[in-house]
């Protein structure tokens, strides 16, 4: 099997960051690579208090998630040392921890690691050792405009059928008035369009690989799922959907242009339009893997000269006290706290009052099924927890975007995707 390091070296090298340590070894500056999602952006302001208290200057490198993944992977694989703290997720943390790329995390008793939701702790650990701490966690769910569905006389139920969801999208689709029935990810990337697409494939009974890790993108289940996805978004989605990821759709939703959005539960924290309701993810007869499981987490690259200071910051930024700091911050409040990480958050009365999505979010997280099954013989929901997956997923993502844009037929895109995935897995030595 191709080594993890060789897999990563094929990615684009990242931009230069900087960190400095005094002669006595105490860091005065930490460079932190973060994804440019709302909670991470908010952290920059909340963390001003951390600098005031500790004297540690924080240099933020905020990147779109696809770019972040490429740059962080390349830098960490080569020991480049550009970053003291990196944002990674459940796909990377166990693999990189096992490979020695990131430091094991050891926090004080006050941190209360047992308060962490088991799904998040397990997904970021290898053999019981935590390698990344979740800043926020998520599953996926339906977020829809109940005012629009009520006006159209349609309903969306928990774990609804995809056919019913499509019918609801058709009923509320009103492009002449700037409202699109369904807004879904289309931008290519293994964590972008493929995150959503994989859950659709899973719900149709498909998987990325068979028991021998041979790609199965030429299966009937993949063909049915991708035809459905292209038809749904092509007929009832906004123009240019092949360029839309999380942030683009969030903006469209808050402009009142989306009737329905199936995406990360964390999005509910940032929805500002009225009349939003929530439902558990749809399926086509197989509910296992219909909703994903993910955490954007913080980790320390191996060999960092500022490892102790980096761990101290991560302990603060993923603590109960940080959640309270966001809840009490004049610019944010309890509806904007990072969720999906700690059980204690959901017991805070102020949070319960400010977060109407909390019960649906928790139900989605608790029902996510990352374990290997007969249908899906690998760990992971919207990804496969193997080193080669980012390369495979990225290649397939381009083909799915081509199918969505009409540049290729679904059959052509899947044929090319199967060939690309097969070449990568064969070269990696799986068969």
The main pleated sheet reads as: 6 strands, mixed
Number of strands: 11
Q: Which term fits the overall shape?
A: globular
User: What level of helicity do the residues show?
Assistant: 40-55%
User: Span from first to last CA?
Assistant: 9 Å
User: How do the SSEs run, as a string of H and E?
Assistant: HEEHHEHEHHEEEEHHHHHEEEHHHHHH
Uncertain stretches = 5-24
Radius of gyration: 21 Å
Strand content: 5-15%
Kindly report the average pLDDT value.
93
Count of individual helical segments:
17
The class by helix and strand makeup works out as alpha+beta
Description:
With 431 residues, this protein is α+β, with helices and mostly antiparallel strands. The chain contains 17 helices and eleven strands. The protein has helices spanning 4-9, 38-46, 48-54, 65-78, 93-99, 118-123, 146-152, 162-172, 193-203, 220-236, 246-254, 307-317, 320-327, 349-354, 358-367, 389-405, 410-427; strands at residues 20-21, 27-35, 57-63, 85-88, 125-126, 129-130, 133-138, 140-145, 260-264, 276-280, 294-299. Strands 1, 2, 3, 4, 7 and 11 form a six-stranded mixed beta sheet that branches. It has a three-stranded antiparallel beta sheet with strand order 9-8-10. It has a two-stranded antiparallel ribbon with strand order 5-6. α16 packs antiparallel against α17. The longest helix has 18 residues, at 410-427. The protein is globular, with a radius of gyration of 21 Å. Residues 5-24 have low confidence and may be disordered.
């Amino acid at each position: 099997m191709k080594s993890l390091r060789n897999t990563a070296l094929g990615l684009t090298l990242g931009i230069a960051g900087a960190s400095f340590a005094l002669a006595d070894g105490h860091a005065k500056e930490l460079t932190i690579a973060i994804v440019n999602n709302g909670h991470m952006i908010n952290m920059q302001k909340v963390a001003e208090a951390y600098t005031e208290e500790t004297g540690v200057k924080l240099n933020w490198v905020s990147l779109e998630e696809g770019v972040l993944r490429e740059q962080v992977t390349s830098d960490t694989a080569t020991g480049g040392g550009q970053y003291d703290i990196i944002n990674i997720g459940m796909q990377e943390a166990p693999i990189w921890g096992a490979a020695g790329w990131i430091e094991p995390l050891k926090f004080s008793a006050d941190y209360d690691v047992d308060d962490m939701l088991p799904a998040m702790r397990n997904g970021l650990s290898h053999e019981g050792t935590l390698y990344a701490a979740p800043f926020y966690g998520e599953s996926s769910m339906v977020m829809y405009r109940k005012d629009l569905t009520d006006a159209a006389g349609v309903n969306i139920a928990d774990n609804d059928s995809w056919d019913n969801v499509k019918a609801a999208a058709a009923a509320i689709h009103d492009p002449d008035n700037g409202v699109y029935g369904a807004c879904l990810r289309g931008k290519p990337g293994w964590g972008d369009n493929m995150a959503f697409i994989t859950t659709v494939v899973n719900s149709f009974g498909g998987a990325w690989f068979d028991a021998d890790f041979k790609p199965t993108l030429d299966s009937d289940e993949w063909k049915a799922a991708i035809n459905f996805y292209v038809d749904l978004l092509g007929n009832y989605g906004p123009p240019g959907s092949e360029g839309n990821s999380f942030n683009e759709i969030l903006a469209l939703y808050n402009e009142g242009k989306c009737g329905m959005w199936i995406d990360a539960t964390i999005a509910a924290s940032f929805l500002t339009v009225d009349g939003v309701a929530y439902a558990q993810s749809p399926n086509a007869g197989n509910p296992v893997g219909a909703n994903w499981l993910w955490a954007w987490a913080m980790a320390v690259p191996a060999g960092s000269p500022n490892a102790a200071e980096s761990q101290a910051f991560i302990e603060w930024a993923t603590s109960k006290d940080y959640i309270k700091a966001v809840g009490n911050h004049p610019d944010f409040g309890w509806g904007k706290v990072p969720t999906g990480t700690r059980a204690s958050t959901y017991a805070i009365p102020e949070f319960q009052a400010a977060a109407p999505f909390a019960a649906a979010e928790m139900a989605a997280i608790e029902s996510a099924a990352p374990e290997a099954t007969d249908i899906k013989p690998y760990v992971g929901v919207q990804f496969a927890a193997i080193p080669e997956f980012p390369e495979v997923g990225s290649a397939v993502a381009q083909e799915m975007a081509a199918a969505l844009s009409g540049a290729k037929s679904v059959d052509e895109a899947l044929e090319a995707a199967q060939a690309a995935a097969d070449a990568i897995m064969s070269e990696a030595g799986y068969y």
